[in-house]
Design a protein that fits this description.
mainly beta, seven-stranded mixed beta sheet, 57% strand
């Protein structure tokens, strides 16, 4: 059974930093991409950042330059370094893994990030 477990969320003030981590366990092969999505109250879930198996990454415009995604292929972990946090970054952040030529998704349960002004 594949399991994704996020950690690192919490309450911070605007301008501060947080680092999210996600560990993938279970029988999983050929990970195509790992990434982070977020969902704020009353809004749809949106892509924050994603890193592909080859190492390239893409970011939402709202976080580019402030957030950095990284991945440890050997440990099947992915991290999201979030700097210069803003109140609008407040959301539940979900870890995501895409496998089987991007046809199958696995999700974590989410970790809450709250940024106060």
């Amino acid at each position: 059974q594949v399991k994704l477990v996020e950690s690192g969320g919490g309450l911070v003030q605007a301008g501060e930093s947080l680092r999210l981590s996600c560990a993938v366990s279970g029988r999983i092969v050929n990970i195509n991409a790992m990434g982070w999505y977020r969902q704020a109250p009353g809004k749809q879930r949106e892509l924050v950042a994603r890193i592909f198996s080859g190492g390239s990454a893409n970011y939402a415009d709202s976080v580019r330059g402030r957030f950095t995604i990284s991945r440890d292929n050997a440990k099947n972990t992915v991290h999201l370094q979030m700097n210069s946090l803003k109140p609008e970054d407040t959301a539940v952040y979900y870890c995501n893994t895409k496998v089987a030529a991007f046809t199958l998704d696995y999700w974590g349960n989410g970790t809450l990030v709250t940024v106060s002004s």
